[in-house]
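From the pipeline queue, job 12 of 40. The input is one protein chain; the requested action is below.

Action: predict structure.
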Amino acid sequence: MTEPVLPSQVSPPEVALSGLLPAAIVGVDVVAVPVLPDGSSDEPGVLLGPGAAELSEAVEVDLLAVAELRRMTGAVGEVVEVPVPLGTAANPDLRLALLVGVGAARPIDVRRAGAALARAVRDHDAVATSVPDVAPDPSGEDGPTREEMVEAFVAGVMLGSFEFHWRSAGPQRRPVRRVVVALPSGGPERTTLDQALLDRAVALGGAGWRSRTLATVPSNLKNPAWLAEQARAVAAEAGLELRVWDEADLEREGFGGILGVGRASASPPRLVRLDYTPPGVSGRAAKKLPHIVLVGKGITFDTGGLSLKPGASMVSMKRDMTGGAVVLSTLAALADVGCPVRVTGLVPAAENAVSGSAIRPGDVIRHWGGRTSEVTNTDAEGRLVLADALAYAAAELDPTVLVDVATLTGAMKIALGQQLGGFFATDDALAAAITAAGERAGEPVWRMPLYAGYEDRLASKVADADNAAGSPGAITAALFLRHFTGGLPWVHLDIASVGDVEKELHEWTVGPSGFGARLLLTWLGQPEPLAGLTGTD
């Protein structure tokens, strides 16, 4: 049988920095400037942002009059086109000016404006814009930093451009090739600093793009071995250490959860390990650093096993390895965001299939380390593979903190809808850091209660625990996993609620979301990711 071949995919826009005003940047066919609501009077109106006056002069059009004629309010996502058929004296290539609403100009607004701009300039060659240079109107003394504005805009413009295809004729639309961020600077020092901000922002946006791509690849190509090869490519690209367990290794070392879930598939399971150490740190100094272990669920397709999913629920299950995609994408970009701690990524990868060798309801499996689980629902498979990886990490890797990421329970979607991820945490400082990182990254999450009162629902008559302890499903799943964490500080990110995007919404385009990589990188890219964590001071 011929192996499927993924067609060449489009790339995210290149993002560059300029110290010029957008109208002065040559070689672009689009220039975009921000539009804000005018709150200075009772009459509705708008204000034009940085670079608009110079653009009006260059194109010889009163852009404020155009905005008023088109009844712009400055709301986020508004885009008005102004054709420039003959270009300008400074830039003969210019063909289009855009007025882009940025609302209150908070980072969230700038991110969404970036996504709206990305959609408006698809199939164009290059756009210069001053949207991220807009000055917000802070409600208090502390407004957003320049870094936050640039990060937000770049994430919006990159993810709003996302495209994946497997068409014989190629992609239907192409992202704009190049985005030039106009940040008029105050000299070489400011330019150097802004370039560093831009590089970090591109790393964050690129991680989001990578995790979406991995989650979107169809499962006739994406199996555990393929996912391990993606990890190999990440390791080579980012200079990471790599180990891959095949099915024989997993059997020999007792990873019963991963083997049990994967045994019905023609594609055998894998366990992937990637290790990051901050550049320039080695030996004893490296061992003294805090060590964070990330575990990502890598179910490359989930039929539900013998507890078969309904057909409609199965359609999106190529994305059930989103947690693994997030971990791979995060490890790939740690050096780019200056992560100061050691990080290990583990991805237990399996296909939950149906065959004569499938795990059955009522079977008992033995996890790495010896704990047993009665499988009363084969569609509660994610926690079985995560349990093996968590137990191994807790016992063998000497972690300071454990974090797992998974599209785990439909209950989380019922609880939070589709715009908010859920998480559980055993440490308040860690929970606060995750919440703040999600807010800044544009991947918001809500802390759920790890309520021990439901612990008795895990009881099994024949094993240490039942893998499907029932309602409340997100909480009982978290309680199940907690037994494998060795009492370490732990975060469990259940991103099933945000795993799929059903309609375009700001920076999210339809399809698997890849949610989580920007959150983790924002957290891990801080100078002290574990500040305030109990027992680390």
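Job complete. The CA atoms of residues 42 and 317 lie 51 Å apart.
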